[in-house]
Each structure stands twice: as C-alpha cells, then as structure tokens.
Amino acid sequence: MIGKIRTVLAFGCVVAATVVLVPLQLISMKTRLWPETFILKIWHRAVTRALGIRVHTHGTLSNQRPLLVASNHISWTDILVLGSLVDVKFIARADMENWPAIGKLSKLQRTVFIERERKRSSGDQANEIASRLAKGDAMVLFAEGTTGDGNMVLPFKTTLFGAASMAIAEGAAEEVFIQPVAIAYTRLHGVPLGRRWRPVASWIGDQDLGPHLKQLLAEGGLDVEVHFGEPIAFSKRSNRKETARVVEARVREMMQAALGEPVK
After folding, report:
1. Residue 81, pLDDT above cutoff 80
2. d(C-alpha 71, C-alpha 73), whole Å
3. Which of 18, 77, 149, 232 could bridge to 199 as Cys pair (CB 3.0-4.6 Å)?
C-alpha cells in the first residue's frame, strides 16, 4: 500500500514538473532568456527528488574548456543525477531518440545521438561532438558504451574519445580536457547496498524501462555518489588508447572508494 501511494505521488510530481518546465525550456531555447541548462537543471532536480534519489558530490566540474566528461554508466538515472548538478550536455545511443517522451526530453537538452555500431556514421557524429566541444559545451560521454551492474567499471571504448582528437585536428582547440567522473549507487533507505543488491539501482542493456521506473517510484530512498576527478589534458601528441586507459583507471578507483566507504 505504501509503495502504491508513493508511486502515485512521485509520478504526479514528475508529470507536474514536466508540464510546467518543458514550455519554459522551449521558450528558453528560442529566446535565450535564461542560460540553456537553467530550466533543465531544475527539471532534473525535481525528478530526482520525486524518485527519492539523494545525491552526494565529491569535487566539482572543471571550468576548463573544451571539456569532455568521461563517466561510468549504471542506469538512465545517471543522466538525471548529473543533470541536477552541473551544466552539461549528453551523448546517448541513437535508439533513445525515438523513445516515447524520453526522446523528446533528450532533444530539449540538445543531446547528441550516436550509432555506435555503424562505422560509416562515426565520423559525422564525432564531428558534431567536436563542434559542440569547440563551442564550449561540456559533453558527457558514458565511455563504457553500455550500462553496468553498479559493482564494477567496464572497459572504456577508446573509439568514443575520437571527438577530442577531431576537435584538435580541425584546429578548434590545441587541447581538450577530459575529466573522469565516477557514479556509485551506495545505499537504499540508509542501508549500504552490498554486491548482491546493488544491481537493484542498475538498468542493464535492453531491460524494459517501465518496470525499472515503477520500482524506483515505489521504492525511493536511494543514495548516489558522484565523484569528479582531476581533468587530463589531451593534445595532438596524446595517445587516445593510453588516455582512455588512464581515465578508466581513475574512474574505477573513485567508484571503488565510494562503494567501500559510502557517505552516510
């Protein structure tokens, strides 16, 4: 009964926030009346609170530009969490563009959709990301290329760092800063999530979104930590594969530290 009541109330809050803020975001995009991410940040915060997600931060987003944020990926809620904290734009898989509601909301925050399996289109996609970096957008790259179970960081896809190389090659910047960021879901109703139960927070692969959303609406009380590491300068002399390995290692280190000693 409590779960059903909570689901109704939380869903109502999400709908209310969306109905009020989406028109304001459309106005903002057309008139530049507010900074582009101002309304988005309010929406992300409203939804995370409705879902009962408590966000704890360590460190801050770098103010250096161009900036590529390289993060691990556990759930669709990662976007809400990061979007509630910092002014960033996202890089997402192409099929999300056609998802009901989610696709349209993603377009409102100028998400770049990429087809990771189609090499023919990878050049154009990297070029768009490079262009956005050059314009000063901080772009979030979920560098594993998929979602994990929340217990470990999967290997980073080095090809996804191609936009940084392209931005430099085209003369848009002499170097791109890559900031490692770790996301860790650590507690449920104040109780530490062990290895067995941590996947409750995760949304893996082709899992249906509806059941996972329903579970979060009913459950609530989820704690997540976001750790911002020191940015790494990537230049034309840098090795893409080596840089990816270094960033991956730093994300893994921060994530394991968060899981080992979660914030109370």
Report:
1. yes
2. 6
3. 149
Determine how many CB atoms are found less than 10 A away from the CB of residue 191.
Answer: 10
Over the range 193-225, which residues count as b (16 or more CB within 10 Å of their CB) and which as e? beeeebbbbbbeeeeeeeebbeebbbbbebbbb
* Domain limits for position 251: 54-207+218-260
Q: Is residue 62 part of a domain?
A: yes
pLDDT single digits (tens) 132-149: 898 889 999 999 988 888
Residue 19 located in a structural domain: no
Q: Does any domain span residue 67? A: yes
Cα–Cα distance, 233 to 201 (Å, whole number) = 33
Strands 175-188 and 232-235: antiparallel
**pTM, two decimal places:** 0.91
Give the count of beta carbons closer than 10 Å to the beta carbon of residue 190: 9
Peptide bond into 66 cis (omega under 30): yes
Residue 18: inside a domain: no
Q: Is pLDDT above 70 for 100?
A: no
| Radius of gyration for the chain, computed over Cα atoms and rounded to the nearest angstrom | 18
